[in-house]
């Protein structure tokens, strides 16, 4: 226990000693917001941060995706030839259209970088853990629109990662919130243009199809389970009032608490879309243009360790809300690697995806909470690395909860 506490003390001091550089990193990303898949500056800034950090990190950029990167250190400890336990910390850094870093992804990048630095220092300055350890910081772009972590999974980026940690800004501290599964559907109606006043009977009105589809979905909501969500927009509704619209497009998000329920919701929604096409005589094309996001699998052992470590350094954990309808591509990661995705307060009551939250994500007062979260993540990793029993329990939790959710 004394060794574990020494490692935790070391990592806390290390994070504190780098607080100015970490704040500069976060603020720099915040001040130049980039959309999903275009995070060139954020990627370069993070790569430069690790490349200049005492030359000890092996940095690969790009890594698997054009705006992803990987910084790794180790392995150390254990015995030569033993299996390596690769501990991963994830960074996000894409922004939202129009309102910048209104979800605080600049702070997620800072947490991942700080936790990686802290764990590295803890391993360097204390006697080695009983296992061989590698520390990896992985830059995961495009969470807001594409699901970059899912593309990284497909590309094999998580194949050698054994534990994974990240944290997301929110309205309160929580070791776990039940993020839901998400899929995006694109619906395109093709009709026939005609003069809307002189020859309306010659046209096939694609806007009528879009309006009917929207109303069909609205009626359907009454028959959905309380936790299911269906929400969307008409992206294209025509070009001019005196032309019967020949083309319209809708975009909807579908969410369910469990990924296995998405198929049922998709079938119900597709029936609404197709019925509108039949009623108006339009042709319809239904596609799913992005990766489906899974719900997050909880890991009770990691969550309890994180709460204990967080409380030890001043984090308070109020009672968490019963329902939370956000979605993240970390859910897909949680199905292949044991991990944790806590949420953290940043000294604002504003809600994510608002201009007020953008301002808070760039404010200096968010730094105390951000770095405290990074410390708690790294401290949790220390607990697991130094206890074979805890590591075994983390893996067993993962096995059991995955089995339950796949039934």
UniProtKB/TrEMBL annotation:
Family, similarity comment: Belongs to the peptidase M20A family.
Source organism: Scomber scombrus (Atlantic mackerel)
Alphabetized GO MF terms: dipeptidase activity
Taxonomic superkingdom: Eukaryota
NCBIfam families with a match to the protein in the record: amidohydrolases
Protein name in the entry: Peptidase M20 domain-containing protein 2
Pfam families: M20_dimer, Peptidase_M20
Source species taxonomy: Eukaryota, Metazoa, Chordata, Craniata, Vertebrata
Entry-linked InterPro entries: Amidohydrolase, Bact_exopeptidase_dim_dom, Peptidase_M20, Peptidase_M20/M20A_hydrolases, Peptidase_M20_dimer, Xaa-Arg_dipeptidase
Domain Peptidase M20 dimerisation: 185-278
Coiled-coil zones: none
